[in-house]
Amino acid sequence: MKSEKDNPKVQIPVKNIKIHQPTQVEQYKPRDQIYVRKVTGFFQQLRRKMNFFFLAMFALLPWLQFNGHQALLFDISEQRFTLWGLTLWPQDLTLLAWLFILSAFLLFFVTTFLGRVWCGYLCPQTVWTFIFIWFEEKIEGSANQRKKLDSQPLTVNKFWRKAFKHFCWLMFSLLTSLTFVGYFVPVKEVFIDFFTFNTSFAVASTVWFFALCTYGNAGWMREIMCLHMCPYARFQSAMFDKDTFTVSYDYNRGENRGPRSRKQDPKVLGLGDCIDCNLCVQVCPTGIDIRNGLQYECINCGACVDACDGVMERMKYDKGLIRYTTEHELEGKKVHLVRSKLIGYAVVLLVMVSLLSMEVINRKPVSLDIIRDRTELAKENFNGEIENVYTLKILNKSQIDNKYRLSVRGIENTKWHGEQEVLVKAASVYTLPMSISVDPYELDGYMTDITFVVELVSDEDQVSLEHETRFFNKR
After folding, report:
1. Among 227, 231, 326, which residue's Cα sits nearest to residue 285?
2. How confident is the model at residue 7 (pLDDT cuts 50, 70, 90)?
3. Could you tell me what percentage of the chain is helix, strand and coil, using 3-state DSSP and rounding each to the nearest 5?
4. Which stretches does DSSP call E strand in 222-373?
5. CA 368 to CA 465: how far, in whole Å?
6. Is the per-residue pLDDT at 432 higher than 50?
7. Around Cβ 270, how many Cβ atoms within 10 Å?
8. CATH superfamily placement of domain 366-472
9. Which residues 6+ apart lie within 8 Å of 223 measured at CB?
């Protein structure tokens, strides 16, 4: 009798296993909504006061007037930026470049010292998110009430609360957008024309675009902007070191975690100071657990610090289980407030402030552009003189009307054909067509360097500007 081993037709039994393929919904599961719990404390009071101050500045600055003009106006269509008594033109873009570079290094300096406090206290995304959460709290209730409301079927109560909340969001977003556009278009025109339906299509579309962006970012996306879209969250770690102050959990003091009554001694139970109440997670606007260590999602708003301090106070423990501290301090090492990286940023800031100040001090309040007649470099007029035609563009960068005197030097006995004293309106350009003629015997060659001079006609200020060009002779 043949065995099964000798029979080549015998097969090993195979069991078919159905492999579960994740559905599209499972592969791309949407995020869980974060219901931020309200918390009070020192840092939240500080954040709210700072938010109110800078929000008030944002709303009021476009309405301020200086010498009869809007004090702060970035008029892109006219290529003119007005900053109180200072008007910047395309020729002054180096000033804006210095200002942006200075702001960037100031952000680096603050981040190296205090971590991501810009995100937690001043970033518009954070400020507007907390404002939208405030609307939620006033209309839908606390975090637990909002969570319960969302789990309920649609009722009249749920419908009117949701509708009113979104209406408030949209109206605040529209007000924000109108104010923002008022920095680039005269703010009075923006508000009056928009609500009287007289605004242009470009302005109206811009207002609605930024309103919808504000509504979407602060109402729906919220922490997504901070976690996945903002580049600052990604490169901030390059500025951190072990002496940077960040919101941190004191692991050595808090572990082991566990609930207990206020009368029980945690040391007897083998527990640390953390009672594992999860309040630090419930108040976090990005939904992280700070007890898991330093995370790029943390925006250093201090909400978990205030929540934990409140719990520690009720438990009669020392505050500061979660606090602004450094990695060196948590390790029991000395904290170095003054260090090479911080000094480097400070030196760069000082140099940039000096260069920017010099640029502003040496800036001339008048500019001159010279355009030659391209059709004919030089011609002989009826007096037998050689004549060159120019177009002078005199730019008054100041906020007041000024009279300027024009002259030329470099050639003896020249004749000026055109106005030599012109009145230029504030923050405007005056175009002056003119020509210069000279006896050919005064010219040494085919081309002679000359200098146009613009002088302010004033008994108080002495302003003079020179611009070199060339005078051509006929061949």
Report:
1. 227
2. low
3. 45, 20, 35
4. 246-249, 322-325, 366-372
5. 8
6. yes
7. 8
8. Immunoglobulins (2.60.40.10)
9. 34, 129, 285, 286, 287, 297
In residues, how long is the chain?
A: 475
- Provide the phi-psi class of 406: left if phi over 0, else alpha when psi is between -120 and 50, else beta: beta
CB 408 within 8 A of CB 434: no
Which carries the bigger pLDDT value, residue 15 or residue 150?
A: 150
Closest-CA residue to 116 (of 250, 286, 353): 286
Q: What is the pLDDT of residues 117-134, one digit of tens each?
A: 899 999 999 999 999 999
pLDDT tens across 50-61, in order?
A: 999 999 999 999
Q: What is the pTM of this model?
A: 0.80
- What are the residues whose beta carbons fall under 8 Å from the beta carbon of 196, sequence distance 6 or more? none
Cα angle: 258, vertex 261, 264; to 5 degrees: 90
* CA dihedral for 283, 278, 119, 251, sign (positive or negative): positive
Q: Virtual CA dihedral for 213, 215, 217, 220, nearest 10 degrees?
A: -140
Residue spans of the domains in the chain: they are 241-330, 366-472
The DSSP secondary-structure symbol of 120 reads: I
Is residue 454 packed enough to be buried (19+ CB in 10 Å), middle (13-18) or exposed (0-12)? buried
CA atoms of 387 and 475, how far apart (whole Å):
13
pLDDT at 259 over 50: yes
Contact present, 119 and 299 (Cβ < 8 Å) = yes
Structure confidence by residue, pLDDT tens digits, 261-319: 998 999 999 999 999 999 999 999 999 999 998 888 899 999 999 999 999 999 999 99
Name the phi and psi angles at 325, rounded to 5. -150, 180
Q: Is the peptide bond before 381 cis (omega within 30 degrees of 0)?
A: no
